[in-house]
Design a protein that fits this description.
218 residues, mainly alpha, 60% helix
């Protein structure tokens, strides 16, 4: 099979059931038996996305089913080494790929926690490691680079996770540019609001209003 990193247009093949298999699935209880067998297979293959999809609604809430501690050993090890909460990596992993290791985005980012090949090469160089673009599909390598990068972003934005998430997805340069634009807009608003009319018309700030202004957490 052609390497995934060599062919960005590669798509997951869709397999159809033969006639005998379709007949078997229609039998009473066969569908549930098949689901249980596939569920066991996803455990052995360590495929959190497929496992979550096969979970029945009775298995728990949406949050319980779709927020597994995927690739737990690697995630907790790397997050601990970088001194941040591992839930940050699981949040990124859910948003970026739904825990799928072999995803390639339309822009070329790869892996469970999406990394662009050029970014991965730069991160590996900083860590003193060799780089192979196909290694981004390996959860150990992917999580290690992502944890290092996310720790850098948290430090850059003084521990503000929402800004670190935005930077991971949109790039730190873009987030810095957005913040600079917001700062200049806030400065203009402050100078305008210094007039007596503006001060008298200003509404009091309530806790509810503050909560609505907080950046959403992914």
């Amino acid at each position: 099979m052609v390497g995934l990193s060599w062919k960005s247009t590669w798509k997951q093949p869709r397999l159809g059931l033969p006639k005998d298999a379709r007949k078997l699935v229609r039998e009473r209880g066969a569908g549930e038996t098949l689901r249980e067998g596939l569920f066991a297979l996803t455990w052995s293959l360590d495929e959190p996305y497929r496992r979550s999809r096969l979970m029945p609604a009775t298995a728990g809430s949406y949050k319980a089913r779709w927020h597994p501690r995927a690739f737990r050993e690697a995630v907790e090890r790397e997050a601990t080494a970088r001194a941040f909460d591992p839930t940050h990596l699981w949040a990124l992993m859910y948003t970026e790929s739904r825990f799928r290791r072999h995803v390639v985005s339309s822009s070329g980012a790869r892996g469970a926690i999406q990394i662009m090949p050029w970014t991965g090469q730069q991160l590996a160089a900083r860590l003193g490691e060799s780089f192979d673009v196909d290694a981004l599909f390996d959860e150990e390598h992917n999580v290690r680079l992502s944890a290092y990068y996310f720790a850098e972003l948290l430090h850059k934005f003084h521990g503000q996770a929402a800004l670190a998430y935005a930077s991971y997805n949109g790039g730190p340069f873009n987030v810095a540019r957005w913040l600079a634009a917001k700062g200049s807009t806030s400065a203009r608003s402050s100078s305008t609001s210094s007039s007596p009319r503006s001060r008298s018309a200003r509404r009091p700030t309530t806790p509810a209003a503050c909560s609505r202004c907080r950046p959403p957490m992914r």
